[in-house]
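seq/struct pair 1
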Amino acid sequence: MALIRRLPWHGAAWSALRSLHARDVHAILLHGGAGIGKKSLALDFAQSLLCESPVAGGQACGACSGCNLALSGNHPDLRIVVPDAMAELRGPEAVGDDVTDLSSETDDGIAGPPREGRDSGKKASREIRIEQVRELADFLGVSTHRGGARVVVLAPAESLNQASANALLKMLEEPPSATRFVLVSDSLDEVLPTIRSRCVLQRVAAPDRAVALQWLREQGVDDPEERLAAAGGAPLAALGDAEQQLDDATRSGLFALLAQGAALPPGEVAAAVPRALPLSAAITLFQRWGWDLLAYRAAEYVRYHPRHKASIARIAKASATESLLGWLRSLEAMQAASDHPLNPRLVVEAALFSYIEALKDPQSRTRRES
């Protein structure tokens, strides 16, 4: 468990959590958009419950034995349950060489103890497995080791499958004394209703733009305005934004190709796309460009790439919504297969060729497809 410090926009959510704790609420579900620090907040709250010398506002002191154990990931009264695919977020000692896929799209990950007995090279699970939940029964079945609170942090709650959710329900309904469950979700609608109904829902709001920008500047982020816009206003997502995996030259080159719209010569595509580039990042850039085109057609609004508003406006006005949607559907399929051993350059070229086709004479194209 990494050192957690409450993020500057969490004041209202923190006060709400302290109030729920005072009311002896045993199960809380934090929900809100991705990239705003909900899991950091959950960990901060968990540490405060385990702290033996809390300071003003109920915050953890960071110096007592309970805090030191929590920060080192060794507190016997804390369990953190996440899918194996988030294992890299536990720290280097928790990631085994036997897991080949550790990608995650969560906003600020946390994870529990490493699982044993995985097959060599086995792809890490993106679900919270029933075995992980069943292991909590042993944890909850004994007295607390340090005579204080016992805390379970589980994220993301939408990764519980039906079997693991059913196993968790009994624990949520009849928890031992002094036990707190803190669940986290990026997508509340995807959390099983049976789980939602057993928890008090606490929404975590996204920060104001000015607060988010100031925080990003304090983290040393270059061009925080563009990064925050590309991340949809989510500051933690801006720190690790997928688009930023592209180097500046590659990003600029791809934007130059997209900005030509239907006039982009196919021959230029083959010459301009580099031989090696992160495929998922390139597709993410294309998807955001497509969403900006749709947003401009609908409301003259550019969310992700405001610096390119002039090009986006020109192309959007000359395009058809159905053609753009078709291009985005093809990108979605490419993104879903981006972690397979494909040739990234060929996939990016195919995405650009389909972009050209989608923009050429969109009205007649739409009629042909109808």
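seq/struct pair 2
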Amino acid sequence: MIKSTIPEFYAQSPQLKKLGEAIANSEKITHVKGLVGSSQSFVIAESFKNTTKAYLWILRDKEEAAYYLNDLEHLLGDRDVLFYPGSYRRPYQIEETDNANVLLRAEVLNRINSQKKPAIIVTYPDALFEKVVTRKELNKNTLKIKLGDTLSLDFLNEVLFEYQFQRVDFVTEPGEFAVRGGILDVFSFSNDEPYRIEFFGDEVDSIRTFDVETQLSTQQVKKITIIPNVENKFLQETRESFLKYISPNTVVFVNDMEVLHERIESFFSKAKEAFSTIKSELTHAKPQELFINSELLEKQLQDFCLVTFQSAAVDASNTTIIFKTKPQPSFSKKFDLLIANLNENEANGYTNYLLCSTEEQAKRFHDIFD
């Protein structure tokens, strides 16, 4: 009930209507103030339901991004909510690349390229700091396969080696493939499960996803895309800022503009320092070819409809929307204080809603209040 009742309150609020108008009119900058905690998630989720535009929500760091990602997945479902993380920890330390994060980044790029319904992309400065391959380069390095296609296993073998996939006995992680008779198992960087492609001669007879642990099929599919590790820093493809990759109609939400610029500039300074100390026979791309700095970020953000969540003073010429939410007081497990606060709220005309993560937790509250 709560998941429908509370969103309705926000949907009917004049503030959300004003935000919707600002987004519909593609106003350059809108300031939203007075939102606390998950109230931001409710506002973004409800406004997203009433637009055909994609959203990019930039949080302060990975932990905050994960918190709000969880909110949005509960409110909207995970089909329309994507997480765009950073792929590695330190510039030029390619061995520290996190394959799971590379997979998530590739899924986002693939979703943007696929022309499917726009989604909400949740991210943070570390992820935006890294440039991505251009749409043209990604298309050039994408292999599309569908049922009924005529393809030889030898051809696919060559393409996958070109994509720097590794041939193994059993596929366990992205970037691997295996061939057994007329069956090709391949783990693309564009999907969170590997594909099993069965051939009848040179014809694609069936395509299924399968579970890495059990090796059992999970779902039949009609067409797939196979893309390589798009974060491989030794590839020489042209790269661009993620803000240049997404649609110019995207609405960008920023929780803290100052933190965003500070972190991007700090990362770029560290990248320049790391580049200057590299001792390797391999040729490495320069920092400006792989990463963005705060100056470029500020310039590119000006091309979008921008919504900021901040309590600091703002430009009076821009639209400002004020909510009046307050954080819940801390009761330090003293239920008598909690009950007193709930009674005070009710006396002041408020309706109390308690959100519990499990049924057991809800039952405990019922027992306490009874």
